[in-house]
Structure formats: structure tokens, C-alpha cells
TrEMBL record:
Pfam families: BPD_transp_2 (PF02653). It comes from Stecheria intestinalis. Its main location: membrane. The chain crosses the membrane at residues 21-40, 46-64, 76-97, 117-140, 152-171, 207-225, 255-275, 295-316, 337-357. Keywords: Cell membrane, Membrane, Transmembrane, Transmembrane helix. This is ABC transporter permease. It is found in: Cell membrane.
Length: 378
């Protein structure tokens, strides 16, 4: 039994999983403490509601429909997480995923509402728009050594107001509200198909092929990064650009390509949400959408793994939606955002947790080897 525990701690995957679980549990504990301070009588019920989300609904169809809503928002969140994860694995911090998400939304909706394009062309246009914005950050990094975090933050705001401008007038804009037109009535061909998935979730029409496609993207990114020469070159460039250049790799091209791919993933994520008819774009919004920043939480909580990001994205969206179900007369719905923020903060200690587990496993191994040696000598 001791050997089995030791072997588990020696596994990098298990250490990452356990570190993430520690972050989640501590984050939930702190959230419960905050709820208790606000109103101790209902804090236990509130934290359970945040965790269970759709399971708190009274009927089966209501639970399925609520689960469908959570999954519909998990797909774009996962794409943003993959955008950040892909770039981070190659040594770049793509905080500009939020801006790439914005221009992806703008491109998809403009193509759908102004040009009446079908959904697959809208999806490709969104990917191209996100890739273009990512490539701008990449070019600034490669040729002028501008930190991608700085350029990404600036481009987030440029992207927001640019999208507000192009969607705020003409064909995409709903004349009676600050939102874009409803896609289902304006151009039904631009709505993502469900292929029968909506029927599995109480006829929830926002459940589309975006959900399985986002999972396929996660698998694809994992394969590219870990099983291809292309992925190896990108990671090598991220680890040491000078060494990559010495080895004959085109490091400038790789930096630009990495951020362009990250931008395309975030742009597709936006298209997954807005082409599912879950919501319309508000042309008067003055804050950067949280989806791109929540992707940071999902990818770090997932242990910087594309596959781990699938489960982390669902968990982040689960507690976010659960926070909207607690009693608003007593607790603020932002409590779920607080818990997410705490988990993000604790994710900074994931490396420390893994290191401590690795040290503990090494000590146990040395001890077991010493005991085994003594037994053999006897």
C-alpha cells in the first residue's frame, strides 16, 4: 500500500490533479467563510447551491435545460482556455485572448447578419479575425520585443470598441435595443446545428455542435503539442528563442504563428457562443467580456493541460452559473466570481504543491529503498 501511494505521488498527472483539488477545496472553504460572515444561517445551503447548480432544479426537464445552458457556455470558455494554454505551453502569456474573443464575435455576427453567410463560413471568419489580432501581438513580440501581455491588454480595448462600432449600426443592429438582431430570425442558416443534441437537454436550442467540437479541439491541441514536430518546435522556441534560432528554427515565425493560433481558438470560442443564439452582442458595453479572462482560470486549474482544461472549464462555468441561483436578497451573485478569483490566485501555488509532493515522494522512495536494502542484507 505504501508503494502504491509513493508511485501515485511520483506521477506528474496525479500531482497536478491533487494540486488542483487543493485549490478548489481551499477556494470553496474561503467562499463558505465569506457567506457565513454575510449570513451564517444560509451559508451551507448557498455553497451547496453554487456547487450543484442545475441539480438544484425541481424537475428533470428543468435540470436538463439548465445543464444545457451551462454546457453551451462551457464550450466558448474551453476554447479561450485552450487559446491561453496553447500559447503558455510555448512560453507566451496570451492575455489578449479576451480581445481575440471580441473580434471573433464581431466577425461571426457581422458575417451572419450583414452578409447572410452560413454558420461554417461565419466560424471560419471568426477564426481568421481572432488569428489576425493574435498575429499583431506576435509580430510586435517577434520584431519589436513588445511584451505580449502589454500589447494584448491594449488590443483587448481596441477590439471591444471596434466591435461595438461595426455592430452598432447598419444591418447587424437591432433598431429597438442596444443589442444585435436575433440570429434565429435574421439568418437561420448562421445558427450552429444541434444534430439532435438539443433533444437530449429538454429541447434546449442553445445546445449545439459547439460542445463536442470544443472537446475535439482540446484533443487536437494536446496531440499537436505533444506528438508532432510542429508542436515541439513551438515549445522549443518558447523555452529559449536563441537556442531555437541556433538549431535552425524560425523563431520569429513561430512566435507569430503561436499567437495567431491562440487568437483563432479564442475567435472560434466567441462564434460558438453567439452563433448558438444563447445571447446577442450588446453594442454599448464598456467592459471587456469575462470569458477570455475566465479562460486563464480554467487552463491553470486544468494543470496547463488541454485535456484538464475540459474539466476545469466545466467546473468554472458550473460554479459561475450556480452563483446566480443563490438567494439574491441575502447573498450577492458575485460570490461565485469571488470563489473563482480565489481559485485563480491559489493556482499560482500549484507548482509549489507539486514540488512538495515530489519531494515527499522522493523521501518515501529513499526510505523504502533503504528498508528493502536492509531486508536483503539480512
Amino acid at each position: 500500500m505504501k508503494n502504491r501511494k509513493g508511485s501515485l505521488l511520483e506521477s506528474e498527472g496525479f500531482r497536478t490533479f491533487l494540486s488542483s483539488m487543493i485549490c478548489i477545496l481551499v477556494g470553496l472553504l474561503i467562499g463558505w467563510v465569506v457567506l457565513t460572515i454575510i449570513n451564517p444561517s444560509g451559508s451551507g445551503e448557498a455553497i451547496i447551491t453554487i456547487l450543484l447548480n442545475f441539480l438544484t432544479k425541481s424537475t428533470g426537464p428543468a435540470r436538463l435545460k439548465a445543464l444545457g445552458n451551462t454546457l453551451a457556455k462551457t464550450a466558448p470558455l474551453l476554447m479561450c482556455a485552450l487559446s491561453i494554454c496553447f500559447c503558455y505551453k510555448t512560453g507566451l502569456f496570451n492575455i489578449g485572448a479576451a480581445g481575440q474573443y471580441e473580434v471573433g464575435a464581431g466577425a461571426a455576427l457581422y458575417a451572419a447578419l450583414a452578409w447572410n453567410w452560413p454558420w461554417y463560413l461565419c466560424l471560419l471568419f471568426a477564426a481568421a479575425a481572432g488569428a489576425l489580432l493574435g498575429a499583431i501581438s506576435g509580430a510586435l513580440k517577434a520584431y519589436r520585443n513588445v511584451n505580449e501581455v502589454i500589447s494584448g491588454i491594449m488590443l483587448n480595448w481596441i477590439g471591444l470598441y471596434f466591435v461595438n462600432m461595426i455592430l452598432g449600426s447598419g444591418a447587424p443592429k437591432d433598431s429597438a435595443s442596444p443589442y444585435t438582431k436575433k440570429l434565429a430570425s435574421a439568418n437561420a442558416s448562421a445558427v450552429l446545428p444541434s444534430l439532435g443534441l438539443d433533444k437530449l437537454f429538454a429541447n434546449n436550442r442553445t445546445v449545439t455542435i459547439a460542445i463536442p467540437l470544443s472537446i475535439l479541439f482540446a484533443i487536437l491541441i494536446s496531440v499537436v503539442l505533444n506528438r508532432t514536430r510542429f508542436g515541439y518546435e513551438l515549445k522549443a522556441t518558447g523555452y529559449n528563442r536563441e537556442a531555437a534560432r541556433y538549431a535552425g528554427m524560425k523563431e520569429k515565425k513561430n512566435v507569430i504563428l503561436t499567437l495567431a493560433i491562440g487568437g483563432a481558438l479564442a475567435g472560434i470560442g466567441a462564434a460558438f457562443l453567439f452563433l448558438s443564439t444563447y445571447q446577442e452582442w450588446s453594442t454599448t458595453q464598456t467592459s471587456v467580456p469575462a470569458m477570455g479572462f475566465n479562460g486563464i482560470a480554467a487552463t491553470f486549474l486544468g494543470g496547463l493541460s488541454p485535456i484538464g482544461s475540459i474539466f476545469a472549464s466545466f467546473f468554472i462555468q458550473q460554479i459561475t452559473d450556480g452563483g446566480s441561483l443563490i438567494d439574491k436578497a441575502i447573498y450577492p451573485s458575485q460570490i461565485s466570481d469571488l470563489i473563482s478569483s480565489i481559485i485563480i490566485y491559489l493556482c499560482g501555488f500549484v507548482g509549489f504543491f507539486r514540488f512538495m509532493m515530489k519531494q515527499h515522494a522522493a523521501i518515501r522512495r529513499e526510505k523504502n529503498d533503504g528498508e528493502k536494502k536492509k531486508e536483503e542484507e539480512k
